[in-house]
Amino acid sequence: MTRLPLVVAPMAGGPSTPDLVVAAADAGALGFLAAGYKTPEALAAEVGAVRQRTDRFGVNLFVPTPVPVDRDAYAAYAQLLAPLALRHGVTDLPAEPREDDDAWEAKVELLLADPVPFVSFTFGLPAPSVVRALRDVGTVTVQTVVRPSEAEAAAALGVDRLVVQSHVAGGHSGTLDPDDLPPEVPLTALLREVRAVTDLPLWAAGGLATAEDVAAVLAAGAEAAVVGTALLRTPEAGTAATYRRALTDPTRTSTGLTRAFSGRPARALRNGFVEAYDAVAPSGYPALHHLTSPIRKAAAAAGDEEAINIWAGTGFRSATDEPAGVVLRRLARVTT
């Protein structure tokens, strides 16, 4: 597939940049742009910027799988968040839940009109017609799954590869049902479980932070290892300064799954926001994402580590501020 058996995960919200994708390609790995939360125009600009420098890359799409929030629960959560919002100068939290599809159709149309080598899907299964259309224009399609039953459903769509994501992965879980948390199964065991139901090539994701981690999943049958958290501190990543500082804070020692930021389960370093709101946050995506986003942006700008989402997998301590190529070659050392 590539010279190094490594894939740089798409990390929406800023960390994934054209520079990071190109650095992955230069090192012999495969990098993905994150289309999530971007306008189609912004995505097109990033695709164009990457294409000028490499022809080996992919784009990740959020498949619309809305989890409508209970309106009363939304209003109650907004009221709880109001004091924190005011502390950061945010006075216009959305009074009504915002439910959207992240410009799904426009982004699919863009990638059909201007095909890219790889397209991956997260959060839900695309329609079979979308998979066929992308394959017809020469795009390799990849679906994120967290359990064997999801792998079977994805394989039935005709996708080319699967990302098998474990529960220790940083950021959002790719579970197709946000109310059904990913199983707490070691990644190597999960790979074997998925291999038992499909012959599709598998990419392993979740908690991979060392060369030994990468070697273990390749030995368990993965075609490639997917890494994300390990690259958050690299100079090519678009990780915000407050986020970077939080990743190196020695007092932050644990991660956990939380719905507090977006209404979908996602793994983050524990901070004041998680401690205060994890137990009371309702399920509801993307409404909660849009509700908390202004607070998180203002907190990041103010340098407040306690009020941002510090997405991180369990291997966050291994992240360094070295160039992405150095990190990737070190991760592949045991296997190359």
Distance between the terminal alpha carbons, to the nearest Å?
14 Å
What is the average of the pLDDT values? 96
Q: Strands of the largest sheet, in order across it?
A: 1-2-3-4-5-6-8-9
Task: Note the run of SSEs as H and E.
Answer: EHEHEHHEHEHEEHEHEHEEHHH
The overall number of domains is 2
Q: Spans of 5+ residues with little confidence (pLDDT < 50)?
A: none
Taken from the alpha-carbon principal axes, the silhouette is globular
* Derived structural class: alpha/beta
At the first level of CATH, the class of the largest domain is: Alpha Beta
CATH superfamily of the largest domain: Aldolase class I
Helix content: 25-40%
Biggest pleated-sheet summary: 8 strands, parallel, barrel
CATH topology annotation of the largest domain: TIM Barrel
- By DSSP (H or I, 4+ residues per run), the number of helices equals 12
- Rg from Cα: 19 Å
The CATH architecture of the largest domain would be Alpha-Beta Barrel
